[in-house]
Amino acid sequence: MRSGSKRARLGLLASFTALAAFTSVGSATAATQLNGNWSPFGRCPVDNPAMLAADGSDNTAVCVSSHSASGSIKLGNSVVPVGASDLQVGVITHPGGGSTVVSPAGGALVADSAQIPGGLLGLMCPNDIPVITGICNQITNASLNRVTATIESVDNPSDFQLMAGVTTGKPIITLPVRIHLENPFLGNTCYIGSASDPILLRPRNLTRPTAGTQQFDGDGTPNPAGVMGRISLLGADQTDTAYTVPGATGCGLGLLNWAVNLKTGLPSASGNNNVVLNDAQTYVATINNPSDVAPDAGKLMSQYWHSAAR
Predict the structure, then answer these.
(1) What are the residues facing 149 on neighbouring strands?
(2) Which of 1, 162, 178, 234 keeps 20 to 30 A from 283, CA to CA?
(3) How far, in Å, CA of 290 to CA of 215, rounded?
(4) For the segment 54-113, what is each residue's pLDDT rounded down to a tens digit?
(5) CA 188, CA 181: separation in Å to the nearest integer?
(6) How confident is the model at residue 272, as a pLDDT?
(7) DSSP string over 214-239
(8) Considering the entire predicted model, what is its pTM?
């Protein structure tokens, strides 16, 4: 009986290894290289129909970019490092203070992959459970142990508040994400959070950023009398401690979800999790006097953006 159980465990391990495609994931979407003061906005969705339709009188098109070089996200009992992240969206402001957030193709957030400290041994092992113990015993080299984590957008952000980015303690934007975990045993479909049940991050400044303003020509050239304006909010660390984290899905063809959840402490309620983004560099750009070029402000901003392409 023991021999049969061992053969069954090894057969299961072989199935995981054969069916799990392990690929390295980096930044998902390349940005357009832009000149001058346009440079932070290489993924701004200026050609989205809603942005193009912004007339400059009732509705105004705005580009928003926020980059952080590093950080971390705590999910239940586990802390996952965050690689460099780049958040870019278009925002359409409406009369009365409301706004609509528009994501670029490929999603609002593009993040570099990071390695989970301890790899699979830290994520699932040791566990005195036959299948998990059998997997742990097969981890004999670094490639089998390595777990890659990538934060991915899963839906359109919402609730953008420009003034919250100038101060501290107020949510700046609501960002729905999931965490993609990859390893030969976990496979390529292992996620914490999903499109239907995402992690909702609402980052806010821990420290007040250094604020500045710039004016520039349509092609990005600095010019104190330029038609474009940019706000710079630099150097703030950002955090969120109020989000909830759902359980894992799709790990090891779905058969290892419970193991990841058990060791990681998922699902995890609000107050048990936190995210930190270090040294955020945030920029906001729009036409200085959009009403002067109504009803074509959105179309004109798209033309300016394309004229700055290298």
Answers:
(1) 114, 181
(2) 178
(3) 14
(4) 999 999 999 999 999 999 999 998 888 888 999 999 999 999 888 999 999 989 999 999
(5) 7
(6) 94
(7) EEE-TTS-B-TT-SEEEEEEEEEEEE
(8) 0.85
